[in-house]
Write a structure and sequence with these properties.
mainly alpha; 3 helices; elongated
């Protein structure tokens, strides 16, 4: 076999592997511990850090840059 045919077979094998892995649907998802939490929790964390409340923050027209 020549070198071009070997490269094509490797390419086909790589593409097939990627397609099979995508078909499994085993995507990584963040753990629940990384979620921000309820609005009450977020608001109290913001107040402890000396920031505006969540209500005020969400009612502003645009974010401060």
């Amino acid at each position: 076999m020549n070198e071009g045919t070997d490269e094509q077979r490797l390419l086909v094998a790589a593409i097939a592997t990627v397609l099979m892995e995508e078909a499994k649907g085993g995507n990584l998802e963040p753990s629940t511990g990384r979620a921000m939490g309820r609005s009450w929790s977020i608001d109290h964390r913001r107040s402890l850090l000396g920031r505006d409340s969540l209500e005020i923050s969400r009612s502003k027209r645009s974010s401060t840059r």
